[in-house]
Specification:
mainly alpha; 161 residues; single chain; globular
Length: 161
């Protein structure tokens, strides 16, 4: 899935603007300006659209984890994993939103895309595991859709991050 699409989806889930996305990225040590972040959020057809590379995406996902769960200063940061895969995005969203496997099933069911336990578990395994399975764009899109539905139904409309 295109990194920009993931950022736009998470922005919608959190109900935040470009400034807050910039702050999330800064939590993991990435310094960008507001124009760059705004350009990440534009439609691909916009003249100033800026593709989000894997390094920026990695900082965004780590920053999201720090925002939602806090940063443990006593532990070193996890090394970045390149290239960014849908599986990695799924894993980091699971960590950030403190989801259990059951929650992930419920999220996919909420998005009308139910998967079995073995399928979801296979997406979360290490790449060299015999039961590892690539997470396709469609699965990640439905997961993001279900997560948005879940997060918006759990929080009052006026809550902000």
């Amino acid at each position: 899935m295109v990194n920009n699409d993931v950022i736009r989806s998470v922005r919608y889930i959190l109900n935040v603007g470009a400034q807050q996305i910039l702050e999330i990225m800064a939590l993991s040590g990435l310094k960008l300006n507001l124009t760059q972040v705004s350009d990440f959020l534009l439609d691909e057809t916009a003249p100033s659209y800026l593709p989000c590379d894997d390094l920026v995406m990695e900082h965004f996902l780590d920053g999201l984890i720090y925002l939602k769960r806090g940063k443990d200063e006593s532990r070193p940061a996890m090394p970045f994993e390149f290239p960014i895969s849908n599986n990695l995005v799924l894993k980091k969203l699971k960590v950030a939103f403190q989801l259990k496997e059951e929650d992930m099933h419920d999220i996919l069911k909420r998005a009308d895309y139910p998967l079995g336990r073995a399928e979801v578990s296979a997406f979360l395994r290490k790449r060299n595991h015999e039961n590892y399975r690539e997470c396709g764009d469609q699965v990640l899109r439905y997961f993001l859709k279900g997560l948005a539905l879940r997060e918006h139904s759990f929080k009052p409309a006026s809550s902000k991050v």
